[in-house]
Amino acid sequence: MATRNRTVVYRRHRDAVKSVRAPLFSSASGSGGPVIEMASLLGSNRSSYAPLSTEDPGPSRDAFTVGLPPSWVDDSEQVAANIQRARAKMAELVKAHAKALMPSFEDGKEDQHLIEALTQEITDILRRSEKRLQKLSASGSAEDSNIRKNVQRSLATDLQNLSVDLRRKQSTYLKRLQQQKEGPDGVDLEMNLNGNKSRLEDDEFSDVGFNEQQTVKIKKGQQEREREINQVVQSVNELAQIMKDLSVLVIDQGTIVDRIDYNIQTVAVSVDEGLKQLQKAERTQKKGGMVRCATVLVIMCFVMLVLLILKEILF
Amino acid sequence: MVLISAVRDYINRMLQDISGMKVLILDSHTVSIVSVGYSQSELLQKEVFLVELVDSIYKSKEPMSHLKAVYFLRPTSENIQHLRQQLASPRFGEYHLFFSNILKDTQIHNLADADEQEVVQQIQEFYADFVAIDPYHFTLNMPSNHIYMLPAVVDPSNSQHFCDRVVDGIASIFLALKRRPIIRYQRNSDIAKRIAQETAKLMYQQESGLFDFRRMEVSPLLLVIDRRDDPVTPLLNQWTYQAMVHELIGIQDNKVDLRNIGKLPKDQQEVVLSSEQDAFFKANMYENFGDIGMNIKRLVDEFQQISKSNQSIQTIEDMAKFVDKYPEYRKMHGNVSKHVTLVTEMSKIVEERKLMLVSETEQELACNGGQVAAFEAVTNLLNNESVSDIDRLRLVMLYALRYEKESPVQLMQLFNKLASRSAKYKPGLVQFVLKQAGVDKRTGDLFGNRDLLNIARNMARGLKGVENVYTQHQPLLFQTMESISKGRLRDVDYPYVGNHFQQGRPQEVVIFIVGGTTYEESRSVALQNASNSGIRFILGGSVVLNSKRFLKDLEEAQRIARSSTAVI
C-alpha cells in the first residue's frame, strides 16, 4: 500500500512564501499605503495566483487562538469518563464473581454483599450516563447538531455494549451459582453434608423425612433464592429500560443508516428543508396580521395626538 | 478482498494518528470511495463526528476550532480552489490533507500560498482513487462514459479528460497493490491503445520513482480492452442475484434505491447490498433466481422460528435471554425484510415485462445458432403486445449483432417492424451499434463461430444440453481469462505496449474494460478466482453497466456523432 508524503515540499514552499511576505510587513505596521504599493509590485513580479493579503498578519494570528470547545463537549467527556469507570468496575465484578464461586468454608455473605454493591454501582453509572446522554441533544446550537448527534450515537453504542455485557456476566454467574448449590442430583449440597452427619448420629430417624434442622435449612434456601430472583428481575428491568432508550440512538450496522453517503445526503436535505421552513416563517411573519394591526394602531395614535394638539392650539 | 481492504487500510492510516474530535471532508467522488468500504459507526469509533462535502462546507460560517479537519479529496483543480478559499479563512484547528492521487507541484504551491495561517499539518498522497464495490471488482463511476465511443477529434478535451481519469484510476490500483505491470491492449481499439500508452508513460517514465517497487519474478499484467468487443453481455437480461438486481432495479455504490418502485415502508426504501456486511448476500449473490427463492424461504423459516420462541416468554430466564439476543434479532429482521422485498419487486417486474419469454430468446440469440428459428422468435416477440419497447430494441440489437451479414433482407424487415411498433427507439440506434461494434470491429470470437475449435465446442454443448436455459451465456471475458491462464493470449490481437514482454503466465491480472463492466462479468471473475487456478484476476471499468445504461451511452454517442457530422 503505497503512500507519498508531500509535507516537506509543502512546508518548504510555505516558508519561502512567508519569508517573502514577512519583510514586507515588518516595516509597515501602520501605513497601509506603501504596503499596498509594494504588495502590488510584488504581485506583478511573481506569477502569484491569489492577491497578497495587505493586513498585518500579527493581530489576526493572535485572534485565531485555539477556541474553546462548546459546553456540551464537557458533558460528552464526562459520559466517556463514566464509561471508563464502569469498565474498571466490571473487571472488579468479574473477580468478585470468580471468588464467590470458589468453594469456601465461610458463608460467603460478604462476597454476596460486595457483588451486590458493585452491580448496583455499575447500574447506577450506566443509568446516570444515559440520562446525561439524553440531555446532550437538547443543549447547543443548530450548527453543532450533527456533531452532537454523532457523539451521542457513539457513546450510546458503548453504553449499550456495556449493559449487554453486564447482563451476560450476571446471568452466567447466577447460573453457575445455582448449579453449585444444587449439585448433580438437584439436592442442596449443604443440606446433604449436614444430613449425612445427622444420619450417622440418628440412624433410626433417617427415614422419617426431613427433620427440623433440614426444614429450617430449606426455608432459608428458599428465601435466599427468592431474594436472588427478585434481584435478577429488578436488574433485568433496569437494563431493559436502558437498552430501550439507547436503541433509538444506536445505529444498526449494515443498514442504509450506517452509510456515510446516506448521512451526508440527509444532512443536505434537512439543511435545505430547514432553510425553506425559515424562509416561509419569515414571509408569514412579515405578512402577518399582527404587524399590520400594530402599524395601523401606531399611525392612529399619532393622528389622534396631532388632532389633540391642533385642538389645543385652535381653542 | 484485496481492493476493499486496501481502501480500508488507507482510511485507517489517515485517522489513526490524529487524536481528538475530527471532521472528515470529502468530495463527491471520494464519498463513494469511502462509503463502500467504511461505515458510519466505524467512523464514530475513530472519533470522526462530522462528515461534510468540500463544496458545501462553507455555507455555514461557524468556526469550530476544537475540531481537527481531515480532508480526503481527488487532486482536481476545483478541489484545490475550494481548499484555497477554506485555508484563507480556516474554520478548524488543524488541517490534515490527503489526496487520492498524484499531486502536481503547481497544486502544492497554490495551497502553500493560500495557507497564511499555517494550519496545514500534513499533505499526503493516499492512492485510493477507485470505488471498490466487490473484493475483485472496482469501478470509477465516470459521468460522461459515452465519450469512449467517439473518435478523439470529435471532442478532444473531453476525450483527454476521460483518458486522464482512467489512467489515474488504474495508476492508483497498482500503487495500492504496490506493483508495476506489463501492459497489453486490444489492438483495434484506439482508446484502449491510448490509455495503455499513457499509463505506460506514467508508470515507466514520468513517475518511475514512485512505481519502482520490489520486482517479483513474474510481473503482473494489465490488459486494457474495449467494451465494444463484447456488446452482447450488457444487453442481456440477467438471472443471478446481484446482476439481476442491477439490471431490473439498479445498484449504485452497493446501494439499491427502491423509492420509485412502489409503496414500501420507510426503512426499506433504500437498502445496502454489500457482500462484506451481509452474509446471506455473500452466499447468494452469484446464485440464480430459482435457488435464491429457495434460500430466502429457508431464511424466512429460520427467522419465524426465532420470533416464535421470542414470543413465548414464560420464565425469568426466557426474558433475560430475549434481552440478550434482541440486537441480533433486530438485525436479522432487517436483513430478511430487505431480501424478501427485493425478490418480491423483481418477481413483479419479471411478470410485467414477460421477461422469462424474452430472455429465452435472448439467450438463444447469444449462444446458439439457427438463423431462421431466431428470426421467427424475434418476429413473434415483436408482435407480442406485452413486450416493452426496451426489450424489443434489445432483441433486434442482439439479432443484428449476430446475423448482421447472413440475411440483410430479414434484418430490414425487423428494423421496419421495430420502427412501427416502438415509439421511443428508432432502428438508427441498432445501425449505430453495428457501426460501433459490428463483426468487422470486434477482435474476440464473440459468438464462437469463427474458428473450428469453437464451432465444435458449440456443437458439443448443443448436443449435451444446458443446465439452465437462462444462464447459459458466458461473457467473452471468460474466454479471455482462459487464454491468459493458459498463456495463450494472442499477440496479434492484444499487443504489448512498447517493448514490454512477458514470459510465461502472470500471477496477477488486472483487466480494465473501457466503457464499463457488468455484474455478469464480475461474477465470472469471482468464480474464476475461486477455482484456485493460481492466477488472481481483478476487474475494473469506467462504470458498471446494465442494459439501460449501455443504451443510454449509445444514444448519447449517436446524438453527438450526428451533430458533429452536421457541423462538419
Automatic annotation (TrEMBL), chain A:
It is found in: Golgi apparatus, trans-Golgi network membrane. GO terms for biological process: chloroplast organization; defense response to fungus; Golgi organization; Golgi to plasma membrane protein transport; Golgi to vacuole transport; intracellular protein transport; salicylic acid mediated signaling pathway; trans-Golgi network membrane organization. GO terms for cellular component: SNARE complex; trans-Golgi network. The chain crosses the membrane at residues 289-310. Keywords: Golgi apparatus, Membrane, Plant defense, Protein transport, Transmembrane, Transmembrane helix, Transport. GO terms for molecular function: SNAP receptor activity; SNARE binding. Signal peptide: none annotated. Residues 219-281 form the T-SNARE coiled-coil homology domain. Pfam families: SNARE. Its main location: Golgi. It is a single-pass type IV membrane protein. Belongs to the syntaxin family. This is t-SNARE coiled-coil homology domain-containing protein. It comes from Quercus rubra.
UniProtKB/TrEMBL annotation, chain B:
The keyword Transport applies. GO terms for biological process: intracellular protein transport; regulation of vesicle fusion; vesicle-mediated transport. Gene3D superfamilies: 1.25.40.60, 3.40.50.1910, 3.40.50.2060, Syntaxin Binding Protein 1, Chain A, domain 2 (3.90.830.10). InterPro entries: Sec-1-like_dom1, Sec-1-like_dom3a, Sec1-like, Sec1-like_dom2, Sec1-like_sf. Its main location: membrane. It is a peripheral membrane protein. Belongs to the STXBP/unc-18/SEC1 family. This is Vacuolar protein sorting 45. It comes from Quercus rubra (Northern red oak).
